[in-house]
Amino acid sequence: MNSTGGAPYHIGVRISVRIPRHARLIFFEETGYGLLRNYICETDSTLYLDPRKSLNIWVAIRMILSFKFSATAYYATFLRLVKPKFIVSLQDNNLLLHSSSIYSPTSLVVAVQNGLRGTFSHNGSTNFWNELNDISSRGGGADVIFTFDNNSANRYRQALKTKQPRILVTGSLRNNALDIARAPDHSNNQRLVYISSFPNLGRTGDRSRWETATVGFLQGVPLTFGEFYRIEGQVARRTAILAEQWSLPFTVIGKRPIWQIGEYQYFKEHLEGLDWTYLPRETESSSYNSIYLNDLIVNIDSTLGYELFSRGLRVAFIAARMDSALHPELAEHRFGYPEVLDPTGPFWTDTSDENEFDRVVSFIRDASGDKWSTVSNPIRELLFEFDYKNTKICRELDAMGISTLGPRLWDQDLIPTE
To answer: Which among 73, 19, 8 is positioned nearest to 46, based on CA atoms?
Structure first.
């Protein structure tokens, strides 16, 4: 599903009076900026920010003189002033990024996938892929795209068939850049870990319209917050009960930072009477740092779940989001779709039956090492690339003429806090 949130929280608009200069490379938006800088070492570079976050007076004046007034016009003006050779971003689902080549035809646009991309949309009549196809027909679209998997690569090829970009399957830049911790020395116990996919509800976490407000559309079908996220509480509670029965610690790995209190409140309600630990997101790497190699991991359909599965960790997929929402005909959120067509397997289920929950979570606990490898390895290789330290991306960036520091883990100094 598309990511909602994750960028730092901004109050007001920053004003810049610095005259924009020519730059060889633009980092488009701050999502993953520190991570990109971990590899890209171009000194002649600048960061583009949406004018609602940071407004450059000189760009605004030039835009006004052109008698055009919009965020798109602002970006087009910025490109004309900076004249970049390269534009690089982790906002691969940003349509303005894919419009860059319309406004700056000589720039090479590089998009790095940052989340699982389906047809989920906030508009019932269209979705990201349809709009991207329209941009492609007008000469837009990224020139180079690094994707998680073959399914994403094929979606981009279809949407950008007019553009025909170079697309390479390299896995998740963030997942490839981080180590996973070993179990704490003081404990040999496994943990049962649930990965949250809770939405961004801002500072208040208001759920008063949870059952009536439309969160978005899937294949044109409107879904309320309650329908789309109902499965989160169901699975978390059942997993916590299993942890109690098995005498295992239970931990919820939060998707949201601590100031978005809605996530904690939601799980507190659903886990009432059970022992649990909540770990909110603190930095862009903290969710990964919260995982131990011997954890038993349960999730619905999160990017992090697939990333950890790509590393060989034991992950159960309760991919029953649409079954719980009473729309089982919508196949997109099923496990491994469309590569995996079986509704159930040893470590996954697409149904919201608690007996199925128990079965798949029990499997990841009880399977021997050989058994887990036998059943998971073929599917893991099919679904999601893992390229430790990002050797493939570095090699491709070097070939394009973008200077890199080479394959490496993410320098902690470059990991921003929330």
So the answer is: 19
What CA–CA distances, in Å, run from 318 to 234, 343, 406? 10, 11, 37
* Burial group, residue 160, by CB count within 10 angstroms (0-12, 13-18, 19+): buried
Closest CA to 113 of 153, 86, 147: 147
List the Cα angle 30/32/36 in 5-degree steps: 105
pLDDT value at 208 more than 80: yes
CB 13 within 8 A of CB 52: yes
Condensed to tens digits (0 to 9), the pLDDT of residues 38-79 reads 999 999 999 999 999 999 999 999 999 988 889 999 999 999
Q: Where are the domains of the chain?
A: 14-176+389-414, 192-383
CB 99 within 8 A of CB 111: no
- Rounded-to-integer distance, Cα 150 and Cα 156, Å: 10
Domain 192-383, CATH among 1.10.3470, 3.40.50, 1.10.150, 3.40.30: 3.40.50
Q: Which fold has domain 14-176+389-414?
A: Rossmann fold (3.40.50)
- Taking CB atoms within 8 Å and a gap of at least 24, the contacts of 55-62 are 55/13, 55/14, 55/15, 55/16, 56/16, 56/17, 56/18, 56/20, 57/15, 57/16, 57/17, 58/17, 58/18, 58/19, 58/20, 59/20
Is 192-383 in the same CATH topology as 14-176+389-414?
yes
When pLDDT is cut at 50, 70 and 90, the band that residue 189 belongs to is: confident
| Residue 8 in this model has a pLDDT that exceeds 60 | no
